[in-house]
Amino acid sequence: MLEDLRQKYDTLKSLNLAIDLTRGKPHADQLDLSNELLHGEVDFIGENDIDLRNYGEPIGIIEARKLGAELLDSKLELTMAGEQSSYLLMTQMILGRFLLGLEGREQPWRKEEEIAFLCTVPGFDRHFATLDGFGIKMLTLNLCEDGIDLQHLQERLQENNNIKGIICVPRHSNPSGEVFTDQNIASFLELTKAYNPNFINLFDHAYLIHDFAKTLKQTPIPLLAQQIGALDNIAVFTSFSKVTFGGGGLSFLTTGPDNFAMLQQVRNMMVICPDKINQKRHVNFLQNKENIQIHMQKHATLIKPKFDLVVDKLKRLPKTCGTFTEPTGGYFVTYYASKPVAKRIVELCKGAGLLLTPAGSTFPYGNDPNDAVLRIAPTYIDLQQLELAMDIFTVAAQIADIEI
User: CB of 360 within 8 A of CB of 367?
Assistant: First the structure.
């Protein structure tokens, strides 16, 4: 058995492939869906008579903010439109709480000896990098089918007295695909607000509109938060990075009035203005939520066959090797090896010309305690390359499983 697998591996290795599945990036055919943005004319006088060619509007032009508010189901006055990355807005939010605090409510985090954040696992390595950059201690928080494991959350809150927030992806969680239920979100908002009235739940809604199969409907998070008086305990972020262009979209944020005022202060310190012409161009192109959903169906048509291929290949593995997710949206499939062999799988794949996200990346500090979780990002390459990539992955997974 092992000898046969090694022969298959050597055959694949002899192809001298160079395939990259490290990041969840759109394929060129997805980017082509938005090429109209490259040619569309823009009226440079905005809706409120602002000259979009000039400085100003650090929280975004009113047209873009209206589009963001429609998308997030948030209040216009509490909605911000930023640059191409919601990750930047999220970092600015953390920076504001770290440097400035909330006036009249909470001192800046930098004045406290040690603070911590709860990070859902498996999770997003860029979230971990940001928190680590601020010197914020990261504590893992388990996920379950409904979202956050509430029992584990209660244990974490009882064990630690200076947790400042949670960072999570509530729809098609990165990378494991969970879709949080309304009850789950409402429950942990109530738990965390009772623990600390200034607790901040950072919702990275990167895949808010990225379904490619039937998916649980969610009540908009701002509406859930408003119902329990927790608007200032949430900050919800999304962007068009995987809607139009990864390097040329725009981002949105909504939060409560105190956090919004604080973030405005941060933006005034850092940002003379966003790219208002690009914001207007996107408003012209996408127009409203209904048109965005139509546009995203085109994305779904392109990427679903890739996820179907990945799942089909993984289903052919011996059940003893491990388990895997079957997402209904987002950009990732997660593989859970039955044995501590994730690093070995990555090593074998690299040897055959397939690059994966490093083992451990889905945990804070790169520490997967079981050395078992791997993230597969199938969107960036074509189906032919993806089939070869999954042949390498499945052979590597079997070799690693047998070796140990």
Answer: yes
Joined together, the tokens standing for residue 11 give 């055959």
Of 170, 162, 241, 240, nearest in space to 201 by CA: 170
Question: What are 21-47's pLDDT values in tens digits?
Answer: 999 999 999 999 999 999 988 999 989
Give the H or E element holding residue 204. strand 200-204
> How far from chain centre, in Å, is Cα 386?
22
31 belongs to a structural domain: no
What six digits make up the tokens of 316?
């052919």
Q: Specify the length of the chain in residues.
A: 404
DSSP string, 22-64: SS----HHHHGGGGGGGT----SB-TTS-BTTSS--TT--HHH
Last residue of a domain, one of 287, 307, 332: 287
CA 32 to chain centre: 22
- Provide the CATH number for the domain around residue 318: 3.90.1150.10
From the list 330, 351, 247, the residue with the least C-alpha distance to 18 is 351
Q: Is 103 exposed, middle or buried (0-12, 13-18, 19+ CB in 10 A)?
A: exposed
The answer to whether the CB of 71 falls within 8 A of the CB of 238 is: yes
For tokens 């909504």, the residue is 254
C-alpha torsion sign, points 355, 85, 239, 33: negative
Domain contains 30: no
Q: Is the pTM of this model over 0.70?
A: yes
Domain termination site, one of 287, 307, 331: 287
Bridge-partner residues for 329, per DSSP?
Answer: 211
User: 130 and 261 share a domain?
Assistant: yes
Strand (E) positions, 39-187? 79-82, 116-121, 137-144, 147-148, 163-168
Cis upstream peptide for 257 (omega within 30°):
no
Instruction: Tell me: pLDDT of 357 over 90.
Output: yes
- 96 located within any domain: yes
- Which residues are CB-contacts of 347 (< 8 A; sequence separation ≥ 6)? none
Label residue 4 exposed, middle or buried (CB < 10 Å: 0-12, 13-18, 19+): exposed
Q: How far is CA 14 from the centre of its chain?
A: 36
- pLDDT for residue 1: 86
Q: Which two tokens stand for residue 46?
A: 């905005």
Domain that holds residue 155: 36-287
Q: How far apart are CA 373 and CA 333, in angstroms?
A: 11
Residues 42 and 130 in one domain: yes
With CA atoms as reference, report the closest residue to 357 among 389, 320, 314, 403. 389
